[in-house]
Every structure is written in structure tokens, then in C-alpha cells.
Amino acid sequence: MIDAHQHCWSLTLPGHHWPGPELPTIFRDYTPAHFHAAADPRVTGTVLVQSQATDADTDWLLEIAAREPMMLGVVGWVDLAAASAPARIATLAAHPKMRGLRPMLQCIEDTDWLLDEALVPALKAVRDYGLRLDALAEPRHLPMLARFADRWGDVPLVIDHGAKPFTTPDRLDAWAVGIANLADRGVYCKLSALRVAGQDDAALQPVVRYLVERFGSRLMWGSDWPVLTLVGDDQGGWLDTATRLSGLGGAALADLMAGCARRFYSLGEPACG
């Protein structure tokens, strides 16, 4: 099984901004050693995803992945609006485990920021170097992302955490429409980080089934470790919950748990053990 979304971070890196002391449960370093100690033995490969909007964090993650066989790919960060972005993207793309970039849309006040013309040179570099985009999105971003997918259909796009439907639970119907529009455009999605406020299985099941129905073979499982520990979950627990609520079995379940991530990120074979 491949965990398509896990983090490491160090509070000592320049520019570290999250988590802060207001989240004491996870306000500490999370290194590969911590991950290996917490990892479920069924998970044999991961995608290591940025958590900081800094070049230092991305460089650190690539250094980690270079020596960690289990970490099959890295999704980093670049200031897409900077004039230097295309050159930076070219440098990152040369790393054998670099797979994509993640603009932290949820932290940007302008919902339509990703459509800004100033980002065009960077987005062309993302496309030309064969990288992907992870969208750290909330429901407010879904209409914008549909427009983005129409314009940049040759940039592979995955929606992290199902666009966090429970951040606006009173607007689940609007979320469902927005998600369906993205699925219809061939966008991918991650089945991760849905239990943002400790939602029980009864609340999660219709959302999980809807994502399974809409995205099919373009849905991939991820844990969001160690952030998921904020709601008392762990990697193995969320793996079991996602398996149960998905209603899938056989080849379809194997695709959710590994095949989709391997295709989307062009990952090598997972490490054994």
C-alpha cells in the first residue's frame, strides 16, 4: 500500500510557520525516524508532501527522500508568482524523486489566485518539466479549480483531502457539485484528512462513497500523517476506516490503496518491509 500524503517537518528550518505552539500535540519535529516508528506495516511506500511555504523545506524533503527508499516521491513548494520560479522548477525537476508542487491555496486570501496571469511562466514550467500540482483546497476553491482545469488540462491536478468538505458542513451540497465538476474534468483526488473535527463513520461514509463514485480510479488514499493525530487517529486506523467506508474490494481497493498514486505520481515500486 502507498500512502499518497504524509509529512515531515522540522521546527528549526528557516521560515517554519506551522504548526505553532497553539497545537502542542504536533508542535515538534517529525523526522523519518518518527514516521517509521508510527507507520502501519502494510504501508510500503509514501509520497512526502511539503508543509511549509519555503524553499528550505522543499530542499530538506528532497534530501530526506534521497536516503529513504520508502519515500517514493516528493511534492514540494515554489513561489509560483516569483520571476525566478521557472528556473527554480527546472532545478527541482532534476531531482529523481521530485514529483510535484503544492501551492497552499487555503492560506491565500484570494480564492482565484491560481488563475493570476503572473503565474503563467511558472505553470508552463510545471507542465514542460512533467510535474504535477497538488491543490490544498477548500470548498471555496472548487469553481476556480474547474476553470483552472479547463485552461491547464495538460497539468495533472490532484485535490488534497477531498477539498475538506467538513470545513463548511452547511454547504455540503455546493461542495458535492464542485467536486463532481472536477471529477468530470479528469482531475484526481485524495481520500485523506476528512475527519477534521472527529467526524464519526456515519458522517464520513456518504462523503467517502461520493468520492469513490465520482473519481473511481482517480482516487488515491493518503493518511496526512502526522496531522491526523490531532483527531486521535493514526495511519493504520485511517487505512482501516477508509477501506471499510469505501465499500471497495479486490482490484478496485488495490487501486485506491496503491495503483492510483503510482500512476499519478509515476512512482517506482514500493520498498519491501
Automatic annotation (TrEMBL):
<dbReference type="InterPro" id="IPR052350">
    <property type="entry name" value="Metallo-dep_Lactonases"/>
</dbReference>
<dbReference type="InterPro" id="IPR006680">
    <property type="entry name" value="Amidohydro-rel"/>
</dbReference>
<dbReference type="InterPro" id="IPR032466">
    <property type="entry name" value="Metal_Hydrolase"/>
</dbReference>
<protein>
    <submittedName>
        <fullName>Amidohydrolase family protein</fullName>
    </submittedName>
</protein>
<dbReference type="Pfam" id="PF04909">
    <property type="entry name" value="Amidohydro_2"/>
</dbReference>
<comment type="similarity">
    <text>Belongs to the metallo-dependent hydrolases superfamily.</text>
</comment>
<feature type="domain" description="Amidohydrolase-related">
    <location>
        <begin position="2"/>
        <end position="266"/>
    </location>
</feature>
